[in-house]
Amino acid sequence: PLDLPRVVNRMHDEGARVFLEAGPGTGMSRGIGKTLAGKPHATAAIHPPGRDDLGPLAQALAQLVAHRCG
Fold first, then answer.
1. What is the pLDDT of residues 7-49, one digit of tens each?
2. pTM above 0.90, yes or no
3. For a tag on the chain, would you pick the N or C end, based on fewer CB atoms within 10 A?
């Protein structure tokens, strides 16, 4: 099983600050948010439930631009 807090904390320790959830839902984004509460980070779910496909994708891309990723 995946030890999400351990993996996320290690990624953060190594410099990751922006996390994109590519699958359906927002479960990973919520878990990452809880794990990194109080630490600098951003999460974006590309396909949250109840939303069209383009809106969340545009928001995720905007976050990447805002955080100067790429």
1. 999 999 999 999 999 888 999 999 999 999 999 999 988 888 8
2. no
3. N
